[in-house]
Write a structure and sequence with these properties.
single chain; 305 residues; alpha+beta; globular; P-loop_NTPase
Length: 305
């Protein structure tokens, strides 16, 4: 058995998940990850692809949620506290990659967290979140803030919770940020301190395991990144745009957002605006301009270290 911590959960797992932080063996677990086979219901095609494989999705009469990738694995999420993994390959790294992404996202969805396809960092005492279409520069922007002294909160999948007073906070995920080879070079990361990832030969992972913090961080700034040259560099998101933009960045099968779940998603979208400012931001061209914007944004005391 393996003990981990991720997304605020104490996890007991039958499979190795090296992306996660080590957990406390004496702490009661919130999530049990089991390795076992199970029957799949009839699957629907989704908009999700990972490593070029399209995911299938299903929900059964008991509200259990399923994801399946051909020739990789099947996942069954139950009650927000039990994830069953049926591996169809022997590559442990590949199974771990698929488990810690959308499959774990099903569990977080069942627990009522607001989920975004986004990367997040801690700037001072604030949580800043970066979204955008593939290639917009979410991870690169996060990497630039981290290089300037900020802390990683999440990469690719950001989970947001709400306090009793309605304030929004980011639940830190786990200590891994995947960046492209050219990003590592452009931001002057020391490659000997990065790990190659199985997702692609030109990608590396930054893993700040020793100083990764798991305490929630108040959500204060949300940026929808784009590269359009004919738009202003920074404009506030209008109230009419908020639910649509948030919906575009939902990281799980769209079939999940119906009826009550869709209403909850819209409600949580607006709830974020009570805590955070939302912007449409043109990502600066080139690493030098990106670094300049980052240094203009973050507190002087943080730059000074």
């Amino acid at each position: 058995m393996h003990h981990y911590k991720a997304f605020g959960l104490n996890i007991l797992s039958e499979i190795k998940l090296p992306e996660f932080s080590d957990g406390d063996v004496d702490t009661k677990h919130d999530l049990y990850i089991q390795s076992a086979s199970f029957d799949l219901p009839t699957l629907e095609k989704t908009q999700l692809y990972r490593r070029g494989v399209r995911a299938g999705f299903a929900k059964d009469a008991d509200e259990n949620l399923y994801l399946h990738w051909n020739n990789v694995g099947s996942f069954k999420a139950m009650n927000g506290n039990h994830l069953i993994v049926n591996a169809l390959v022997e590559d442990a790294n590949l199974i771990s990659l698929f488990t810690v992404s959308e499959a774990l996202g099903l569990i977080l969805f069942q627990r009522g967290l607001f989920l975004l396809h986004a990367s997040s960092v801690q700037v001072g005492n604030e949580g800043w979140c970066f979204m955008g279409t593939p290639g917009a520069g979410k991870s690169t922007t996060a990497a630039a803030f981290i290089k300037a002294g900020c802390k990683l909160l999440s990469d690719d999948l950001t989970a947001i919770g709400f306090g009793n007073d309605g304030s929004a906070y980011i639940v830190p995920a786990y200590p891994q940020l995947k960046i492209w080879d050219k990003t590592a070079d452009g931001l002057h990361y020391e490659k000997s301190e990065l790990q190659p990832v199985s997702e692609g030969v030109n990608k590396f992972s930054y893993q700040p395991k020793s100083d990764f913090l798991h305490e929630p961080v108040p959500l204060k700034e949300v940026f929808f990144l784009h590269k359009a040259r004919n738009r202003k560099p920074l404009v506030p998101l209008s109230a009419a745009e908020i639910p649509t933009e948030m919906l575009k960045n939902f990281p799980l099968p769209s079939q999940l957002l119906t009826d009550v779940a869709l209403k909850r998603h819209f409600s949580q979208s607006f709830q974020c605006t009570r805590s955070a400012r939302l912007w449409k931001k043109k990502r600066p061209d080139g690493f030098e301009n990106l670094g300049k914007w980052v240094n203009e944004c973050i507190p002087e005391q943080l730059i000074a270290g």
